């Protein structure tokens, strides 16, 4: 599937992220996964986001892009297009505000006195 150009960072944004000013981290590391946050859509948070690199570089853009909403859904163990229908901003906010149900379930099952956690498909029915 072709990825829309709007997901690719401009060369100016890459320069901003890599600059040693504005308290930036100065790195784009596709090997390092960072936490999804509700502010993923904001470009001023671009220096703390997770990016993907590829061979394609749209005109006036770099080959570095942000994750698609559907990719963020997969990372949060949500079904594909679970947040479909809203803007990308709304989708990133709702995905970034959530918890990964499988991880929370795994953690809670070891807590003393906690009932047996629901199976994943049952959790998804409750959403």
**Spans where pLDDT lies below 50 across 5 or more residues:** none
Secondary-structure element order, N to C: HEEHHHH
Helicity, as a percent range: 25-40%
User: What percentage of amino acids are in beta strands?
Assistant: under 5%
- Sheet/helix structural class: mainly alpha
Q: Which whole number gives the mean pLDDT?
A: 76
Q: Major sheet: size, sense and barrel closure? A: 2 strands, antiparallel
Number of strands: 2
Radius of gyration: 17 Å
Shape: elongated
Q: Helical element count?
A: 5
Q: In whole angstroms, how far apart are the ends?
A: 28 Å
For the biggest β-sheet, the strand order reads: 1-2
Description:
The chain has 127 residues and is mainly alpha-helical. 31% of the residues lie in helices and 5% in strands. It contains 5 helices and 2 strands, in the order αββαααα. It is elongated and about 55 Å long.
Give a topology summary.
Layout: H1 11-18, E1 51-53, E2 64-66, H2 69-75, H3 88-96, H4 101-108, H5 120-126
Antiparallel strand pairs: 1-2
Q: What is the structure about, briefly put?
A:
By secondary structure, the chain is mainly alpha-helical. The chain contains 5 helices and 2 strands. The relative contact order is 0.14.
List keywords for this structure.
127 residues; 5 helices; mainly alpha
